[in-house]
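Take a protein:
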Amino acid sequence: MKKLFLLTLVLIVTVFTFNMCKSPKSLQKATEAEEVEIPFTDSKYQTNKDAFRATQSGRSPDLSTAKKIALTNAKTLLASNVQSIIKACTDNYTNQRTVGDKQEFENKFEELSRQVTNQQLSDVRLIDEKTFKEKDGKYTYWVAIEMPRDALLDQISESISKEKKLQLDFDKHQYEKIMQEEMEKFENK
């Protein structure tokens, strides 16, 4: 009985090990998929505590159209990332500070932040680009862009200084500290 149990156990382990040792090519063939390397996936192209970054691509038979698509996609992604960080910062900032009318402050602050983000997106810097001509004659254009965090903070602070009521409730150093924490969380995702 003991020998039968050991023999069965050895057989199970052998079959399991054999199945685990299949080569990636046999797995690739089984799924009919080919792994594709995507440009700009290194950490230097990711958002970090100093800058918001985004990478995207565009594909078209016309190179300038492929570039426009890629830049539009990248700016949309960048704006989305900026908005999510600002939302988190505003929520945390408002919760840490007792602002007279929290809801009014949050709404005005978020509206102001969106305006600032839209202004700043016109000042986005191109950090890298790659162009590919596909077998079908179409172009695929990859772009990596960035927007410095400090430029955004300065723009928010400047806009708030023009809003008397918001200016009373805003502590730039506290907000900057919260933004730094949120950027680090975003970077570690």
